[in-house]
Task: structure prediction
Amino acid sequence: MTMQQEFNPRQLVEKFLTTYRASGEYLREPIEQLAELASSENPEILKAATGAIFASLVEALADSFEPSAVLLYNRLFAQLIQYCRKTTRGQAIDEALTQYGLTNESDFITRAEQLRYVRRFQRSEAAKQQVKVIIVLSRVTIGADVAINGVVVNRLRREFPGAKIVLIGNAKAIELFGGNARIQFAEIKYQRAGTLTERLLSWLDVRASVEDCLKGLSKEEYLIVDPDSRLTQLGLLPLSRAEKFNPDEHRKAQIVDDYFFFPSRELGNRTAHSLSELTSVWLNAVFGGDERIYPEIYLRATDCESGGRLVKALRGSSKRPIIAINFGVGENPAKRISDEFEQQVVVNLLQRGAKIILDKGAGEDELKRADAIIQEAQHITFDNRKVSVIEFDEEKLNRFTDKKPFAADVLVWRGRIGVLAALIGESDLYIGYDSAGQHIAAALNVACVDVFAGYTSERMLARWQPTGKAASRVVAVDTLNQAIDSPQVLTDVLQAADALLKDKW
Result:
């Protein structure tokens, strides 16, 4: 019997975590076996092992927001990197890491420990003016980019008014930040569903992109800001052009002054601050001051114009509030309440007099659930008539030129995130699960109701709460310790909507 036949990836994770939590003992064998399974030629085994590593191990540690979990992550992921770099597919990774002087697990751990401490930007005012380019790494997920990088970019624009800011990430980031001329983009296709080795290989693409952005610049003329990004596997993979690892020197000295890392999983570990708030605190510690910076996004003019036209046509002369809704969960079903809950939220809001913008989401499951909501909505009446629904996609939007109101109670959108964000920005309220939508609403100063289920710790709940200048309400649903009471959650959501819309009903 081979190792791949004998071991179940999730059982290996459970064995590792149970032992560590009980005694503090670090079991190398389960991590080594996981790395082997994640390098399998068998697609089913490879997929199961990769899922266990990232969903059951890496994300579980990250979501705890505990300093001890950061130390454990650094140790186990250093072991995974060492395994992968020795494989045939990992040869290029090994060569690149060797150039940085990172040759063994101890090197990674020693270097990572330095990143856990916040460093002050210590250049003189004159030297500060020399900075021409600032690279900001994407957090990969949309919600995190808005909640964290929305704060980072906002502060950097003010701190370095003469510098160009380059956001390295996926195409969706362009839609959310592309409306500001000072922000440029370098697209990286990080595979969130990729294998362990594929995710590590994407670091080489990021490294090449960084080099391309900094071509011709001296080390005084650029900065790299890493907001605890998956692109560097939470800081374990280096990007600084100035860095050359020496373990003896690093026990005493800080790494380099061109790379700044936001320790998002442990900063403020005794507080209940959101990640947006902690990002602002961190930036003050790095650059000085005590300014409260909120997340901002910068939508492109064409998307703003499209969203504005649609909402104007939906609103007409009516004084009915417009509520944007998205029930997407980013392929994490633990964040959902139920089909009936989603349908009843829309039905009840329509019966109370609201007009609805419903985002259909992405993927077959979300589309089916959205269709069920639409069908249920069309069965009810408002103002002695049947509720009417109008659907738009990119093609229909491009043909839409009539600026007159259309007779509809529900506008259904299926298309790009940039237009969805513009629709949210024109709404009176946003309602959704813990995903990107509530962070977009907060960044656009739109009140929101965040239905937060599936959280694994109270700190995770606190960290991911939406943060902005507009009011928000979090409806927490503790699905780990109790069964979901859908009627009660519905009542809580409607009461929160009432409170936020009290002057608009």
About this structure: The chain is about 50% helix and 15% strand. The first strand starts at residue 133 and ends at 137. The radius of gyration is 24 Å. The longest helix spans residues 43-64.
